[in-house]
Structure formats: C-alpha cells, structure tokens
Amino acid sequence: MRAGNLDRIIEIQRRTTGLDLYGTVIDTWTTYATMRAQLLKNATDDREGERGHTTNVVLTFRMYYFASLSLNDRLLYEGHQYDVKQITEIGRRVGMDVACERVGP
Prior knowledge:
By secondary structure, this protein is mainly β. It contains no helices and 6 strands. Strands 1-2-3-6-5-4 form a 6-stranded antiparallel beta barrel.
C-alpha cells in the first residue's frame, strides 16, 4: 500500500450516549479517529426491500490497519454517513478494505 494513494480523508465515528437538555439519555455519534484512505469502489445498488424500491450507495475504502474498527462503527466521508458492512484485512495487519453503505438520504 502506497501512502500517495491515500488521497481521501474519512472520520471513524462511534456510538456514545449522552444527555439532552431534559436529562433524557440519547445516542450520539462521536468522531473516534480521522484517517487517510483510498476510495477503491463507488457503486450504486438498486434493490427491492422492506422499505420498497431503494437505491443504496456502497463505497469501499482501503486504509492502514486500525485494530479497533468494528461493524458497529460508521464512517463520515464528504459530509455523508456510511455504516460499516464488511472489514477485510490485507496482509498481516498491514491494511484493510472497508465496505460501507450510505445512511439516510
């Protein structure tokens, strides 16, 4: 993996709990790490599902190995949130390919 190919900046966010103004517990997303990555694949997937006909944006990023990344995290890229769907290790803790799906509109 060449550092010059890592031309995108992504933020890894993790779900945390906090309190709103009324003292009610709410879930929030906090930026856990900011990393450089390479955008490998940008695909659009049309499918029929529970919500009817939807169009999902699927991205695959390649980045240096980050041990604490899990499927419960999400990525923030160009102002859009993406749920982590698949993590594939490259080599022996050299790098990883992360497939994610866009959340929201």
